[in-house]
Structures are given as C-alpha cells and as structure tokens.
Structure to design on (1380 residues):
C-alpha cells in the first residue's frame, strides 16, 4: 500500500481526490491537512459518507512526512511553494495541483502570479503532468506539476495539430467551466443567485493566468515540428456556466491551405488511439460537457465548417476529473508503476 | 409623484424594489443608501440596464430625509431599528422589510433576535404589513412592518382555517425556499456548488426566527374565533432548494371531525374572493413554485387526503415578490391610497 | 384600445407576449388560438395567475379576424405562412414571430427551411422587425417579420462594424442560449436530466437556419458601406446551456489594421446612443446573460485583446425578451405610433 | 465472472447499472436490450466513454438467456412481467427493478397498477430486495424485486420505529425527488423550462403508487412488534425538484408518550450500526440530498422538536443509487455471495 498525505484537503480537488483514492486498491490515506479545520473530521466539512468522513484533519505543521510515500498538494498557488519543497526535502514524492511548478520559466511565473518563485532548483526538476505529452518523464519524476483544467482541455484539443505543424494565426478558445473551478471560498461570483441562470465571460482579452501554460506546452510541441514562435497565438475566453462540474472548450482554428479534413482526423486518431483517458468522437459528433461529467476522460470532437478553412475542436473534460484530481491519480499511477487507469474507470 | 428613499438598497430585496418602483407611475427614487458601495452607481453593483443602474448610492448619513415622503428600509434585523426611528422622527412614512417592527411583544423580539429592542414606543405604532389581514390599519399607518417571506406563505395558507376556529393539534409546514431568501452576502450555504443539486433542511425542529411571527398573527385570528392558546402549534421545517427565487409551503393540518371538505373550501373562497393578490386554485390543482415566480401573488391549493382528516394546503409565493418587495409596494399603495396593485401586475 | 389576437399562444413566446401585453396600457386581448388546447383556458396550460389564465383558447378556425386590429403569429415556421396571409387579406396588421417572412429571397427560405414559400407577394411587403435597423419602414408596415433570437444578438453586436465597413474575414460567433429557445414541445434535447449540468454545441459548422438572416441583414448594411460580398463570413456556433431564458453571443472579429480601439468604441456609441433598448457597457465590462434576463434590452460589451487585432463583442439578450416577444411588442409600438418602450421597461 | 444481461438498458437505471457493473470486478456484460435502439451501440444513445459506449443493443427477442447467469430487468411496470418469467423459466436469476414483483398481494398490485398480474406463482417466490430487512431471504433468492426509490427512503427512515412498535397515528412523509426519477421519456413534466426554477408537489393526497410498498413492508415489521393494523397510516407527498439525481424524505412522526429521545436514537443506532450502506448522522445534523448524491448509501438524521412529541426523520438517498441501480447491485452481491458493497463504494 502506498501511504498518502494531502495538503489542503478541504477544497473541491481534495474532496474529489479522496473519493478517487478510496476506490484505489493500493492507496492508503495517512493524513489530511487543513489550517482552518484542524481538529475536525473530514465529515464535519463535507456531507460525505463515514468511510470518507472519518478521516481526521490536522494542521500542516502536524503532518508527519516520514509516514507517507507520496503527497498531493491541493493548496492555492504561491502557498504550495514551501510545503512542496519540504516534502521533497524529506524524500517524499509530490504531485502539486497548484500552478507553482507548472511554468518552466520562473520569470513568466512571477509575472503571471505576481509572486516570487522561491524554489527555482526544484522547479527545474518538476515535470508537467500531462501523461499524453510527458508519460516517460512522469514515470521517472519525483515532483509532478498537475496541469490546470483549462490548459488540459485546450492542450489536448490542439496537440495533434501542433505535432503536425498545423497551428497558425489566431486560435480562439471559447471555454465554458462549471463553478467548482472557481474554488470553495465563498464570493459574489460563486453565489448561487449570481451564477444561476447566467453565463458570464470573465478575464477575456487579457493574459489569463492559464494562457502561459498553454503556450509553453503547445510551443514545445511546435518547436519539434520546426514551427517558429509567433506563427500562432491563442485568444482564450473563459466563461462561467451554472454547472457544478464540467468544462467544454470550443476551439476555432484556421487550417493551412494544404491540409485535408481526412489528414486532420488521421492525426488526431493516431495521437489518441492508444490513450486510455482521451477519446475521439465519431465524425458528425460534437463533444458536450455531458460526455465527461463524473469521469476522468477527455472527449474530443472535430467539426469542419464547409466552405471555409475553419476547424472547430470541441474538447470536454470534467474540471475535477481529467482537469484536476483524476489527472493527479493518473499521474500517481504512472509515477508508481500502476496500471494507468487504476481507480479511474 | 411620491419621493422615495431606500436604506440598504444593494441586497436582493433592494434590487427587486427598484425594479418594481421603476414601473410604478407615481414613484420617484430620490436616494439609495449603501455603506459599502457609497460613491458607486447601482449599476456597478448589479448587472442591470442603465435606467436602473444610473442611480447613485450614498452613505445613509448623506441621505436627506427632508427630500423624501416615504422610506423603504431593506437593512438586516437589529440594524433597522435606528434608521427607522430617525425617518419617523423626521415625519417620513416608513415600510421596514426587516423583522425589527413585526413582533408586538418586545420580549419575544429580544429572545428571538438576541438583541435589545431600543424603540418600544415606535413598535407600538407599527402595523404588520399583510393587507389581507390588516388593510384598514395599514391605510392609516405611518410605519409598516413588512412580513417575512416564510410567514407570508404560512399565514395566508392558514388564515381561513384560523378564522373559522379550525386550527387544531400539530400543524406541519414543510417549506421550500429559493436561495435569494438567504441574502446576498456570500457564504458556504449560498455557494453555487453547495446549493446546486441539493435540497437541505435547516433550522428544523428549533424555534426558527420566523415562527413567532406566524404564531402572533394566526394567534390573533384564533382569539377572534374564541380558540384558546395552546390548542394548536406549528412545526415549521424550512428547506433550501436550488432555485434563485420562489417559495412553496406544503402545510399539513388535521381537520376537526365536524368540518366538511366543502366547508373548508368555502371558507378559503370567501376569505380570498376579493383579494387582488391571493388566488385559490381549482379542486384537483396543487400550488407549485412556478405559479408565482416573478409575480407578486400568492397561489393556494387545497388537497384533502381520502380516508383521513388531513388537509394539505399548498401555498406558493415568490419570496422576493409577495414575500418581500412586492408586498412592500402593495403596502405603499395601501398607505398612500393608490390602487392596491399599481405597478404589481 | 388595440384589439389583439395571438395565433399559437401556448408556446413560450405566446406566454411571454401575454405577460407583456397585460401590462401594456393600450392592448386588449381578444382571442388566443391553440389547436391542441382549444376549449381550455390559458391557465389550464400554464401555471399563471387568473388575470392571464382566464383567457379562453380557441381553434384558429374560430378566431374572428374582424374583431381584431393586430395579430401576433407565434406558430412554427412553415405553419405561419397561411394564417399570416389570411390575416392580411382581412386587413389586419401582423407581427409574425416565425421565420416565414424574414428572408427576402424565397429561394434561400426554401433551401433553408425545406418548404415551399407559398406567399411570395406578401413576402415582398414584409419588413424585417429590428427597429434599430428598420424603424421607419416598420412604422409604415402592415406585416413585420420578427427576427430570430440568435440573429438579434449577432446583428446588433456587429451592425456598427458593418456600417463602418470594418467587417472582414472570418467572424466567429460562439453563442449560448437558454433552453426555452428550443420550444415547449418535449424532446430528449430539452429533457431536464439531459440539459442540466451540461453545455452542448449543436448544429455547429453547418448552415444553421439562423445564418441566412444574419447574412441578409449585415450584408445589406455592408453594401451601404461599399463592401463587396465575400469579404467576410460568419462561423456561427450555437450552444445549449442549462438556463431557462437568456442568450449570450461571444463574437470574435479581426479588425482591419487601420482601425483604432477608440474609433470602434465611438462607432458603437454613436449607433446606439439614442436606442431605448440597446445599451453599451463601459470599457472593461463584458456582457453576461444576467445583464438582460427578464428584460427587453440588449447589452453590448467591447473587449480588445492586447497585442492582437481581435475584438471580442459580447452581446446579451433575453431570448424571450428582445429575442422574441419583447421585440414583437416593440414592433407593435412602432407600427401603431406608441412610445417605443410602452409596456417594456 | 458472472455473465449479465440487462432488459431495457436505455433508461437512467440502465445507464447507472452499466456504470456500476463496469467497476465490479466479477461482472461481465453479455447483452443489453432495447426495442427502440436495437442495432445501435449504447454510446449512440448516451454520451458515455467508449468503455461503456461500445456495448451493442439488441432486441429482447435476440437476447440469449442461455448465455447469462443473471438478468437485471429495467423495463416499466407491467412490461416486466413476461421477460422476468422467461428468464426464470430458463433458470436465470433475476433482479427486477420494476414494481411488478414487489407487492405480495396481487389484488393490491392490480388495483394500484391497473393491470392484471399474470405471474402469480412467480410472485410468491419473489423477495423484496431491501437487504436491511430481508438479507437472508435475498441470499437464497432467484428472483428479487428491487424496491422503489421513494419506498426505500421512507422504509429505511421508519423501520427502527416500526420494529420498536412506536409507529402511531398519521405519519407524514414530505418527499423531494430529482427529475431522473420520472424516467427518460420526454414529457412536459420533465421539460427543462417547466422543471427548472420550480418545486412541484404531484399526486399528493391520493394513493400514490408507491404507498402500498411502504405499507406492506412497514406493516410486516409492525406485526412482529404486535401492532394492530390501522394504528398508523402514512400521508405521502412527493415533490419534483430541479435536480438531476437525489431524494430526500422529511418524515414527521408523533412519538408515543413513553418514548424518550435517547431511546429512539438507540433504536436507530442498533438497527443500522452494522449496515454497510445506511448510516446515522450525529445529533444536531440533518440529512440533505448532498449527503448521498452519486453514492449508494442512505443517510438518516433524527431531529426532535422541543416541546412536542414530534420526531422529524430526514432520510436521503440517491434515487439512482440506493434508490435503484446501486440497490440492484447490492442485491446481486448478496444473491451471489460477494462482499455486499463490491463495486459500490
């Protein structure tokens, strides 16, 4: 059994992680931390059955790193930096669900998150935790930076085009998210009456915090396809929708002149044919949020607009599944040599 | 034109009031107060069209009582006590949407709200603002205490039985409310992900703050029917439902042996036949929230359970309409001699 | 008083129309038709207060055209053709909410709706009912074709650009609609469990039925700006969202090189400054569905993506308000010489 | 591996069953039937990942009973009668999710469902599939009648009182259900716009079809406690709420004079202490739908109303989990000797 600790367990990613790990045959929860709810049980914070609710919550200072093999860090960005470093210093493997170890260039991190990156050496060792792009590195990693939900839906939706060198011009991702993506801290934005019966674009047209992740990962792929920087850029428009969990990116790409519909479809099929948690929809089908709700999969549909060069990629994930905690367990499975979908199907 | 001020305009009852008054042919908004948003416009706080959004928000200290004829007070309980008194001292008529002037007995107020009642003389002058019970008094009043939403649905649902002296034993009101009833301050309870896909009983089995209002008003009616105190009591169970606005009380009453179905129905029809904002559903129909959403009416259905003495009263209001701001405008119309439904249909 | 009949009153546009007309000081409902519910009252079909529910439903064959001045036709496309013609033959003014009289070219109608256009002479007299584009013609018209909801949100969102001759290349409208836009006939698509907790693109990448309307109206404006056909095209992607009523179009436009942000904003401000039912949001604001829910207005926000030529127009309407029945009453007001927003604010 | 067939797989209980069985280590799906969708794949009917979607749908006439060990029957009531009989005649074990084999008295079945019971001999062999009441009989059964969702929430909520002989007078169950309980066939009742932003009582005050199940099972327990028939009766009021899946029964019981709060709590604790899928909430807690959403458990809270004899039992299940498909898998586990919660946690 793998002994597991979770930092910052009382948010939605912590809850989902606990539900997934409870089903995992080789995972044993050793401790859960919460600064605000230390001394309580998990069931005092969430309405969950006793099997999950019985776990005690402790302050992170009381979490014994020598008692665990692997730590999931579900703390907010910037707050994750130190606990991750402490866990690594204690020789514990780490999967960090924050943004703190995702961006390879600390200058971009600092500009994006407006916070100094205090762990640059560790950052160099971190692997971006998207197995569909970095499986081999994840298998050998001790620190994995779990991707953001928006980047997962966009990167998986565009990776086959990037590999083929077919990304060009302005790529538009009109993305829709459920409210759990905004976290559990109460705010006017997440108030039921404000979010219900509403669809709200937010942070559109600016450099959204998730954009550098997309550019880093898709940019790396493009380099391997000998595409110059600046040949393409992403306009990213997130929208809040009145849904608890789910995410859909509707992505608009202007295909190069010499690329055929069949060629594009073949590129996607080839890329994802053997992936256990990404699947292509049939021609004529579009991805909806419902394709992946309460799953750990990504569903992708391709629609070619007649009489134009426009390809519409619809990419659906559950923001708490393949967009966060499901991906974290997938990464754990890859790091520890379990079958990749253990506990995830 | 009647010149109007609103204290505490940036909650849901303030928003609804403003929408209703905008349609009212004789109402002119002079000022709106907000301590937190003073200096901003109403449209900076809510996503509303410019006709409503253009109004300035001022601190209550800057609100000129000499410039208005009537004030609506949308502040929380306990906070309303002083502003209402100041407005009355300035000779301004007041409709208070808080609980501060609803309970005739200050001792019950103080026990229920855990706060001293500092305006006992004024309390003696206040009229409980349910025109269906107190129309004549409201017409002559300078201070009207607008009823709570739950009490409105329950009192209107039971008043004809009380008048007839038919309330007896344990009356159960299983009430369901939309989330706007919980106010606009963000909390875990009103967080979209917590409230969505959920129905939650809360404060059941205890003396809910709204119970004394029901007992006071129904008790007064019963006294007129020569019913002793203690012959009936209400068990009141509020539930939060994933709805922005709406309220439904499903009320279970054990009818006395000698009362016929036809007699009960006749009593309700007689009581509400001439009421412009309460209507009886036909036999076989039950009230649903949908009957009154976005209206200022109350819809009542009667269902007799075969083979038992049980009457099920279904009573539906919009918690922001007849349950709050709609009732406040109805009271204004009665106080000022306008047709009672002006601006409300 | 204007005497009014409504054909096909038992859908959501009929319900909304009735609610709006009830508040209109000069409108008198004379008859409502329904083939399926003839003989019943409106209140047997919808949970509405008696003031609306009391109206009788008659078969269209029993609807006396000599008793009315104006008819709203809320029938489905193709079904509207004949009743509109009969009403016109009887000298009654008509506002048709179907698509039957919107497209000037009957060949495009027949291809789009797969149905012969049997009233070509009448079609020539019909005016497209968007007062913001055709106010003067509507004022003199006897037959007005009320626009579709999607076209309203997109045309109003792009008209100022078209006027200025700034539409170019591929314009993408990623549009989100509430479920009432799909009508009241039960289907799997509108089943609560299928639509709830879901966002679904549909009919994307094909020639959606609403696209020709957008092309006709924007194309006419462009011609006046001396733009050639083919210089721009719209990719239109409708999405179903779990909302009863509301519509948001997020529209992506690549601006010409020589156009400034200030110039674009000035063009929109100039176009809509005097419009009573279209309003521009301030710089930095984006339109959300919530801006227009339960209103008859259109709210428009402009966002310029730094470092690109991309303008994001967010255009919000209530699909049953400015997107259907609210626009129909606006058209009635213009046709009959009432103040344009009578009954609509 | 246990070879499994499912009759009527394309409803919500079939979908949920398939998801649960996919996780079950000993279950192998052999065939799924659908008369309407025969020839298609499951993924053509639901938006599910390929692991589930790949299953073929066949007409029931083509379903080979000799190839399976156990059949789940997810057909509507009355339609289940014959297929269950055929499966039993072929020696296949059956778990029937319809109402056809739940009521021991065929006369009550025929009156309740208005349909002749054509399989009376088989009915005599059927076991009511609530393991918390009939575990031993289920273990030896070949035909199990899976309980209805409403009866499960009410029976589990009242069984400890019935065992103790403490049921008396009029017991009121005000029950709230998600829309999936109404099935997948489109209807006005399940139309998104009708169900959303609404709470609707339905079939209240009449003998709801689920009432005889409650009376049969609770009556049998009461007999063992020497309670006479007629000493208690249930008033059952179901409500539709705008939720995809979930169920909450708020049950009001007048306790006998000589029963203490501690005694009642002890009776519940004793009854459910060892149950793997029923759990008691702590004093002060109430069950909400959220306690059991997407689980196969039942959560029960007890609230004693001060100053009265009223006990409020809050009983929460997921109507598709413990209320249908989860219970069916639990029954399968008991019948076949697997650990009872295999595949269910």
């Amino acid at each position: 059994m793998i002994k597991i600790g979770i930092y910052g367990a009382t948010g939605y990613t912590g809850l989902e992680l606990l539900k997934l790990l409870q089903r995992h045959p080789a995972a044993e929860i050793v401790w859960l931390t919460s600064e605000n709810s230390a001394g309580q049980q998990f069931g005092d914070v969430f309405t969950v059955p006793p099997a999950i609710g019985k776990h005690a919550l402790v302050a992170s200072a009381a979490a014994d790193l020598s008692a665990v093999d692997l730590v999931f860090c579900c703390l907010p960005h910037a707050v994750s930096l130190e606990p991750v470093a402490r866990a690594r210093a204690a020789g514990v493997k780490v999967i960090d669900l924050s943004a703190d170890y995702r961006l390879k260039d600390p200058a971009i991190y600092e500009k994006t998150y407006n916070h100094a990156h205090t762990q640059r050496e560790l950052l160099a060792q971190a692997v971006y935790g998207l197995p569909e792009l970095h499986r081999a590195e994840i298998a050998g990693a001790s620190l994995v930076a779990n991707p953001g939900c928006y980047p997962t839906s966009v990167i998986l939706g565009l990776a086959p085009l990037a590999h083929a060198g077919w990304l060009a011009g302005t790529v538009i991702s009109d993305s829709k998210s459920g409210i759990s993506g905004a976290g559990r801290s109460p705010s006017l934005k997440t108030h039921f009456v404000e979010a219900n019966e509403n669809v709200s674009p937010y942070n559109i047209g600016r450099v959204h915090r998730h954009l550098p992740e997309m550019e880093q990962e898709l940019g790396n792929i493009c380099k391997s396809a000998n595409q110059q920087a600046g040949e393409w850029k992403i306009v990213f428009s997130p929208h809040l929708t009145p849904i608890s969990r789910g995410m859909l990116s509707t992505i608009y790409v202007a295909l190069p002149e010499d690329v055929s519909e069949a060629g594009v479809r073949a590129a996607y099929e080839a890329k994802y044919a053997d992936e256990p948690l990404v699947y292509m929809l049939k021609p004529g089908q579009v991805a909806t949020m419902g394709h992946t709700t309460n799953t750990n999969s990504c569903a992708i549909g391709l629609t070619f607009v007649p009489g134009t060069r426009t390809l519409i990629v619809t990419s659906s994930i559950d923001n708490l599944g393949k967009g966060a905690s499901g991906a974290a367990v997938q990464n754990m499975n890859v790091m520890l040599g379990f079958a990749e979908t253990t506990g995830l199907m």
